[in-house]
Give the backbone structure.
Amino acid sequence: MGNVEQTYSVLVNETSCEVTCDPETPLLWVLRDSLGLIGTRFGCGAGTCGACTVHLDGIPVHSCDTPMWSVGTKRVTTIEGMSLGDEPHPVQKELIDCQAGQCGYCLSGIIMRAAPLVDAARAGGAMLDRESVCTALDGNLCRCGVHNRIIDAVVKASNP
């Protein structure tokens, strides 16, 4: 017997939303199918490629294996909510300026993984090094092979 659908009140990109779904429905599908936020990508469906990364209360998580019942009252931020007003987040800006993306499929997940790291570095007045960025992005796959350009852009974005 399947679960009975439930209604959830969630805060997504600072907007209150109500969705009705099975409690086991992955957050990814609620974001994409119910809320139309298609910037969060489906990659592997097993939480190993990072394409589906979003923030729950500022912490990067894989939305493909995060069931709705576990979201609770946490704030959800997707790639659509990453800009700072009319300005792109520093990671977004540097990825564009450095022409770091190729196909771009992985970039929303990479931005969501890298942004808290860059924000912390900038707040502390310290620039990230390549090794720390590589470690942080280890769970994000880029099938185009532009990791070096992505890493360079993230390091550059951390410059306070």
